[in-house]
Fold this protein.
Amino acid sequence: MERICPRCGISSGTKKFFGDFCEDCYLSKIDLTLPERIEVQFCKICRKVRVAKWEGLNKNVLENIVKKNAKGNYESFHVLSCGDNQYEAVFLVSNGSDYFEVRRKFSLKMNNSTCEECSRETSGYYEAIVQIRGKNIEKWSARIVRELRGRTFVSKYIQLDEGVDLYVGSKKTVAEVLDVLKLKSKVSDQLYGVKDGRRVYRRTYCIRV
Ligand SMILES: [Zn+2]
Ligand SMILES: [Zn+2]
């Protein structure tokens, strides 16, 4: 039997129907919203974005952005990139045993900012000094710098008569890298200030290579 969509007047002979409405009218009534423009913090130096934490804009981050901003019921979704900070989220929505796709376009508005790592780096901040001493200084300092880069920053590289001193952003990362490279170090702490009522130490790692 032919049905007529009460909203747009189209006949069921020419369109698929869901209940009383044609597919288009049914989809347009679905209460699933996503803002057309979503603002995210963007580090202009390392080009990372901040959603939960600072990280590169990848598939996971995009999905988190949609999850945080979409309102309504859906089974699942995926995100398509349309270039130039334009995206489309394709939601799978169910109605009884029927499944259909609901598409919502959105753009990311990148708000320029500087992440903690980059602002520390540009201000010359460091948490640790790695002193490299011994016979194979060149080889080992190159290896250590290679391991550190990408995980933290090396704000200074000082060539001394007795070896090389590296000024490094994160002492936790230094410990991890020395562990990976199986290098033993002599550690000493030096008080350099108080932050939020707690004493803050800079750590020196001395390595013989
Ligand atoms: Zn209709
Ligand atoms: Zn950054």
Q: What stands out?
A: Helices lie at 23-29, 59-69, 116-122, 137-148, 171-180. The chain has a mean pLDDT of 91. The chain has two domains: 35-113, 124-208. The longest strand covers residues 98-113.
